[in-house]
Design goal:
The protein is an alpha/beta fold. The protein has one domain: 3-Layer(aba) Sandwich (Rossmann fold). It is 20% helix and 34% strand. It is built from 3 helices and 9 strands. The strands form 2 sheets. A 6-stranded mixed sheet has the order 4-3-2-5-6-7. β5, α3 and β6 form a beta-alpha-beta unit. α1 packs across α2. It starts with 9 loop residues before the first strand and ends in a 6-residue tail after the last strand. Bound molecules: inosinic acid and magnesium ion. The site of inosinic acid has 17 residues, from β5, α3 and β8. Magnesium ion (MG) binds next to loops.
Amino acid sequence: MNDSSSEPSLEVLLSSSQIAARVRELGEKISSDYQGRTPHLVGVLKGAWIFMADLIRNLSLEATVDFLGIQSYVAGATSSGEVKITKDLDVSIAGREVLVVEDILDTGRTYLYLQGVLSAHHPKSLRLVTLLDKTARRAVAVQADYVGFQIPDVFVVGYGLDYNQQFRRLPDVRYLRNAVGV
Ligand code: IMP
Ligand code: MG
């Protein structure tokens, strides 16, 4: 189903059915990779919560969850890499098989910072699953272990992602027309 006519300024990039199919595949891959283990999913708020809710329901193994709240400082149109933790983890990740769940990897600066913070707590393993990856925008050497979709350099909203806290509710991923390079 597609209700894009009610949001004329937003073009659908990934439909909810495309997303659902891909999240199912990611769930299967992660379940097979972590077979016999219990991954600890750490969702990065707020953008990743919808993706994480769908992902965990596509896992065929037990997983525990926690959330990290962060605020990335944006300099101009791009993330500065300066990150403020607004909600810390509730439980220790020491010795755990941590799988960070992100909405989007853009310049990579936010994840580079998180990687440093999380590694310092000695997880047994640390991996990243991101729904979206804007590879063309990467400014630092980080990459995700699991990627839902590679997307072009457009500013996207929906399925948890926002523009000034708006549009998180949209069931599909849409882009702001003429917002290329934001
Ligand atoms: P990075 O540090 O440049 O990788 O960007 C990290 C954060 O910027 C993401 O977790 C998002 O919160 C935000 N972001 C980057 N690109 C987009 C986008 O196209 N739409 C919405 N948020 C974005
Ligand atoms: Mg984010």
